[in-house]
Amino acid sequence: MKGQAEPGHMDIESLYQLGARLKEQGNLVEAERCFRRIVEHAPDLPDPHHSLGVMLQLQEQLPEAIEQYRAAIAIDPCFVKAHYNLAMALWRCGSYREAIAFVRRTLLPAIARPIGFSACCSS
pTM of the prediction? Predict the structure, then answer.
């Protein structure tokens, strides 16, 4: 992931690494802030949306986490972790039917095809 934030600010890669370190240290609020800043400055990158979704899900902010996973998938339809985490967040929200339908539509076909998930994205 490459990119430069506004002058005087950390570049996107450094900010992403800082967010990842803060998550590892258990500082979810500060990690969330890092990923939010990246999403604000580089909204077309899928990884920061996904990472922000993870931080939100870990803090039980499931509707907003779902929104971030959907954003990551919209940018990169083959982002397997985002698909999985979206299904799990939907399930935890009690949207069981939507979670099951999502898994059937996106994840199960990927498992069934020997060439992997990218085959599901091309159709």
Answer: 0.82
